[in-house]
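anyone else get weird line breaks when pasting these?? whatever heres mine. first is seq + tokens for prot A
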Amino acid sequence: MARALQVGARTVGEGHPCFIVAEIGINHNGDLDTAKRLIDAAVLAACDAVKFQKRTVDVVYTAEELAKPRENPFGATNGDLKRGLELDRKAYEAIDAYCRERKIAWFASCWDEGSVDFMESFDPPMYKVASASLTDDLLLKHHRRTGRPVAISTGMSTIEQIDHAVDVLGRDQLLVMHTTSTYPSDIKDLNLRMLPVLAGRFDVPVGYSGHEVGLAPSVAAVALGACMVERHITLDRAMWGSDQAASVEPQGFARLVRDIRAVETSLGDGVKRVIDAEVGIMKKLRRVG
């Protein structure tokens, strides 16, 4: 049986309710009010947590990359965009206070060591390592030094690269997430059968980070063993932003949570038995030859 990890007061793993995360990511578009509205939507949908993305822009991107022309609401370069999407400490302090008020957990994907150190001041219940960072051994080790649970996404990675990342991180308090790193993802590329493969290979809880249009594959992932499901949340898929089209709107997120909980209830324990509610029907309809 796959191991479990402790995320705050929640136990995440086989036999426990799926941990459902609404990834706000950068869908706030640099605006604190939008971030709060997305938190509200996640709370109304009964999600377990919201997640952001944190970068030290000048560390994650080269000067050449930041200087590239790119028209966006914040300016004319890629650097203007990346800096415009980053929330400052004051904004994160407000997010921390708001999540406490709304009674929902929050954490972040950190793309560099400085961002991990920044997030540590907020006492997050866990960290998420993005697929892009899976091969960054120094960043993986820095995450592990915090002593907090770590979920790692495995998009655009070979199984050998995943093996190496798991070796670097160790299997204690680790969750491995299957994902396809296209936005949005074509359903034919999702390969959900990797979920039991990952669980068997690493003997840790597994999860699913979905970027597809629609909800069915994310619900199916739970039936295949996902102990954590993460989807991007948006106020409107037509909003400006690179991740909006691969995100789920508030009403859809509420349906996603509802359907995941229904699937969990329906899975049962795998032991065949005659339930009490069947006895009367059995006596009425069954013929014994």
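and prot B, same format (seq, then tokens)
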Amino acid sequence: MSNTKGKKIGILTAGGDCPGLNAAIRGVGKTAIVEYGMQVYGFSSGFLGMINQEYRELQETELSGILTLGGTILGTSREKPFKEDKKQFNKIDKPKLIRKHYDEMGLDALVVIGGNGTQRTASKLAKEGLNIIGLPKTIDNDVWGTDVTFGFDSAVTIATDAIDRLHSTANSHKRIMVIEVMGHHAGWLALYSGLAGGGDVILIPEIEYDEKVVANYLLRRAQNKKPYSIVVVAEGIKHKKGKSAAQHISDMIEAETELEARQTILGYIQRGGSPSPMDRLLATRYGASAVEMISKGEFGVMVALKDNKIIGMPLEEVADKLRTVPTDHHMIVNSRKMDVCFGDGKRL
């Protein structure tokens, strides 16, 4: 503790909000203050806070009671300091400004909490000479280098609950219910919630689907006296421009099968609310581990979980990579054996 007492660390949350951000802030802050005697400064609205010098020192007392809260007490933004702003009249060198403010504050390290875009920025800031530690968060679970991001478990729970409720309506009206979940270009959320919610068809970006295969599968279910079907689609699947993925699939089903289909788009509800117990634990673990790394002088890394062990994954390896669902993932292989359709016509 003697080597760390009085050290100053900054913390910010960037990109989209997700459950567990406050738990991570608490994990970083309490560990830094209580165990290591550090001073902790929270920056407002992601990287904008560093650019505009909007920050405050976080006291241990205000970190109590935030574990269960959704959102982020620091606020967030999608500011990308390395991206050129063509609309800006007076060009500002944002990375240079961040470095200047970092040095003026006398920060010893900066903890950056965010998804893919945020970790990319973190990697670039590390190359500029800042002592950076990244924490992976996103409901999409698509950050490369870690087995899981916090926020994902909460989103799976919310999406699964929604699918559970749609079973009742689908059965009552003998309809096909199409539910669209988030995930950008990765299908983790659709795969996990689809399987947990008993989805009959699950369409993810990683597996190219055939509309005829989906239609024939749903017709076969109807002919086999199965009164309704649940179709879970990831927002990132191939679909017509001007339509959502759910609308595209719903329209296609009605056109190809003459069966009645209805769509539901979960949207931002997946990102809100209190984090699940698993996300509270994971975010806390990531936060505490970040401070451990700072105390040891390990920088330029993202806190990651590999085989349930915390490691420091080099940020330069994480940047510009995407963690997508392998098409031979054990959950896909096992689900095919139970006649779940992934739209490609494969049985096993």
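btw re prot B: The domain at 8-151+275-306 is CATH 3.40.50.450 (Rossmann fold). The chain has two domains: 8-151+275-306, 153-271+327-336.
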